[in-house]
């Protein structure tokens, strides 16, 4: 066989698994695995005992193995990097695969050997990556090299958004939604260390883009090795050193002068609803890196230092707000040590600090001038490290062990926190205040930037042990254990001498004719609400899991993955006592992949998996801490002008008669754990079904189609049970609030008040009918259609269309409707009327989405890339202040309603129609086109790169979120309903340059 024919026969079954979306890969933590089969080219018979040698061309790491009796082989626990693969056998010519890039997970390399003719046949490794017929997992594997060709914002979230089935979350949260799940249900790992924010699931450790080497984005069907996620998993590996000493430096600049602003919005009366023309933002990042060998072939280092400067301003004075000037400039540092003790044993050490502090100077407008008000700070990040051992005990047994610690600062405060209170006048905000004797919406001397004060820190201590044992030619057994201890320290309060904040309103807008704390309000009553809330303590959660999985090669063309994961978590209160403990979570993971023709060119695959989500530490702090939370209402008599220390004026409210009693939601004591959690609490779980097909079109192109179905099996949230207590035990006007963490729509057993005296005294079981709560539901269906052309040195293309729907009555751990980050304790299910009409299309529902990206080498060393995304709009709901059954208003606009109107006499009528959530239209389609140019050259013996990235080239300004409050008050329509609250990120430009030598 000629070299040309050999290449054609090999590549005809190949695609780039490194640059193609949704390419299934076998979970292998942070290492690479190469599997394949060696056959004779003429007879296609298996070659037993063939020798496969793999050598990392930069570190000298090597492994040698022989094929089994079926001609199959498996090279495990390979550090990611570039390798040369050599295959030899008596009577055959040797074959060498050069420049083969080993990424995270499994890759297949099947080779045919020619009868010995005295030559070594070479193949370029970038072209050898077949459809992996051994797995049913769905994931995107992509390296920093591939990402350099296309314009992608420099964030892990932006990489995740390249994968099918992922959508951008609400702008108030950030992050990505995987398969209809909320953005707080994902897990992010760096070199095996879980760096996800466990307080509420939002965010993760902020590592510079240039520190990463490989990304694996698991969108579904992942193995029993991974858990604690009902969304997706992002598995990243940082760069490492090699035998070559390398020094590099680069700069990324996003100038404010080349950044557009989102549109301004006016109300129907012509006044400003939002004004953004004077907003500015710029970002400047430097990276300085060094790597090399401390001991050649054995001990390597990589270090990076990242000075950075982000600064900008916002101006909301035209809408009654403040002017802010913000900046952050704390440098990041990171280091990686790799010790290859020998080719069978190695140790990896990782350490980095992502400490950061954003400082905001706030100004108020007074007499047409900006006057300094305060300086607020928000701290984040911390010191993190991990140590990892990988050992090949025998050719058939691999052991991996990891221990790491993560710290994340959550402190915030200001220089006026001791003396300034927040006072908001919603009469101004709703346009009901005709005489404005005060500063507008923000009345007091505190602002939204500095009224919340917290001293807090989250600490994770994590360990895991994984083993892979090839117990027979057809069975690879994987099993392991992982354990995390997650501790949240928190001291929270509101600013000011009284530690409270105030909200002002007018009865004609919200309370006319209804009862507030036992007092019937009249239309001309101005009232003010005081909220006082504190919580403190140390709260610990332990989470552990064991798993076992068998990768079973049933036949040469049929592979099954049979796994089982058992998870447990134990959440403790401020006294260290358990208040939630679930240890019987069994998560089966079943997958099957069929190489239809036995040639590696196509496969049919299916997968079923169950996934669990632990209770967030936010629940420990809020529900099981020593929280005190009270609300007191007063008649507003007027304002008293005060002078701030800097000479600015502000106003304190003059309080009149108290309206009713103090409403105490939490009394400051650590509650009896039996009274706040359902004794038979079930975990939040999700079942996932996947069916897909993938095939080669020719040696350059491949295509695939995949169907995904996800069903959330129950949720965990807090529910008030006052009404059930009153009904079950015959209480009259039962008042003490009892919030219980439970499964909505399910039976509940809890320690409660059985004699109506206001104190818990005995166990009781409430049926779903007595609790009157709907069962929590979330369903997701999707079809992904993908075409991809691998990079051949000239051009590449990847295109995916996704049709999907996400519907039910529960978004998940957080709530995009009102921007609530209170994970596990959202306003959903706080009482039954809040969920009336809540079933419908959920906020992360995007019915249609197109993702197309690629690159083209215009001339030698000049590459152009593009990244286009088009998605349909977000469903719009209608939220009102109350419900006909209860007239409840204290929760704000959180009820699902449809309309409010005035009758023929001009009297306000309030009606409720169950149209369901997400039924009031959708936001506009969101198109976005990103382009880049990259030029490489050698300058003074240095590899130099110049780059221009333009994001949102056409400056598309489609709205991404609108005002969904349909009422200003009970029965009073909101003229600002459906006005845009947020838009796509406007056009901005990134200029960059780098050198390496």
UniProtKB/TrEMBL annotation:
Chief location of this protein within or outside the cell: membrane
TonB-dependent receptor plug domain: residues covered: 135-233
One Pfam family recorded for the sequence: CarboxypepD_reg
Keyword entries, A-Z: Cell outer membrane, Membrane, Receptor, Signal, Transmembrane, Transmembrane beta strand, Transport
InterPro entries: Beta-barrel_TonB_sf, CarboxyPept-like_regulatory, Oar-like_b-barrel, Plug_dom, Plug_dom_sf, TonB-dep_rcpt-like
Compartment(s) where it occurs, according to its Swiss-Prot or TrEMBL record: Cell outer membrane
Stored PROSITE patterns: TONB_DEPENDENT_REC_3
UniProt entry tagged with the keyword Transmembrane: yes
Signal peptide bounds: 1-27
Annotated Gene3D superfamilies: Carboxypeptidase-like, regulatory domain, TonB-dependent receptor, beta-barrel domain, TonB-dependent receptor, plug domain
Protein biosynthesis is among the record's keywords: no
Family label: Belongs to the TonB-dependent receptor family.
Protein name: TonB-dependent receptor
Organism: Shewanella litorisediminis
